[in-house]
Amino acid sequence: MAKTKVAQINDSLYDFKNKDEYAFKIEKGLNEDIVKEISKQKNEPSWMLEIRLKALQIYNKLSLPVWGPDLSELDMNNIATYVKPNTDIKSNWKDVPQNIKQTFEKLGIPQAEHKYLAGVGAQYDSEIVYHSIKEDLQKLGVIYTDIDSAIKQYPNLVKQYFSKCVPLSDHKFVALHYAVFSGGSFVYVPKGVKLEKPLQSYFRLNSPDSGQFEHTLIIVEDDASLHFIEGCSAPKYSKINLHAGCVELFVKDNAYLRYSTIENWSKNMLNLNTKKAIIEKNAQVDWVSGSFGSKISMLYPLSVLKGDNSRTEYTGISFAGQGQNLDTGFKVIHIGKNTSSVVNARSISKSGGIATYRSLVSVLPTATNAKSSVSCDGLMLDDISRSDTIPLNNIENNDVVFSHEAKVGKISESAIFYLMSRGLSEDDARALIVRGFANPISKELPMEYAVEMNRLINLELKGGIG
Which of 408-438 are b and which e, b meaning 16 or more Cβ less than 10 Å from the residue's Cβ? Predict the structure, then answer.
């Protein structure tokens, strides 16, 4: 019997869609009138419109990147940049419209909130439709709300940090993001407050021929700690969708932040996301990332180790199947003294998929006694896939301990034979090896997300290797 192709497998957990119903959907394209209309729809203050218009000017001046995957098929004239769902934001799941509520129930969001989360935000197309935070955290001064509410309720705080971590001119798709952004989360953790349970935001794009441009802004004050979880998915359409979100993280002295992401965008999605953290003295940011979906991904979280003794770790995995080009990696800039970074990246490619690890380690002259360790492993499951490692290491002082290791290989046939001799089928033996390869990543995720990552791996592998 012929093996089932991945494209034939029922990915019903993610690849379901609702009727394209909305309160408002902006015309396709990108110009000043469209940007002004988005701001008008959101009833924004004038200072935010000024940022949007400035970003649009920058976007029009910048060129597409030419060093990564080919983005020539992206035509903004075919993308609607703002889709308002048929509801405003709710604080009770019962009040969310039935079709939207059922979407998030299928994705397990209410169940996760009940089991192990301190707060949840759920975005549908361009707007947050549900947001909640436990009352005891509010009493401690923790703010967890949608970015649009934060702009109006905490304008001075937002002004202080918004676009200060990721500038408008960072690259073309950041400028696009700032011109049309909508939705996303705002988190403020006061000094000394340590959250024992994670906060989670989930972003679901439903509307075809559209983009999602959420903005996440997180401030963790001195001696505070937070685990923030981000989930993303979309149904599959025949035409290109676009995701160009932005994440800005400010982690102050002696603070800790873990930022976990599982992305399972549909395979017609261009995922051009930007994430950056500024890390102060004795503080630490850990990134945990799983990239499974999208047609093209270009995603390279950046940690700026600004303060002395600041630290960062990145643990990530990508899985590129047929028709996918996942160009992912990590960037770190060492500025303070005694800083350290640890990178553990893994990629899997099959059925002609392309998995690329692209990195930057920059150690500035001020970063004496810096330590950096980079390890990236690629696993190819057939002869037609591709795995590349493209590191850039810029070391500007001699008082540094630095190591970089990269390996690319295939599944050992002797390991397959050994497992088959113990009673496993060939497919089960291969899947077991792949899950073992991914285990250093999955063990860093919350239990529910580790299970979900293994489920996604099984889905991609089912009948598709060998």
Answer: beebeeeebeebeeeeeeeeebbbebbeebb
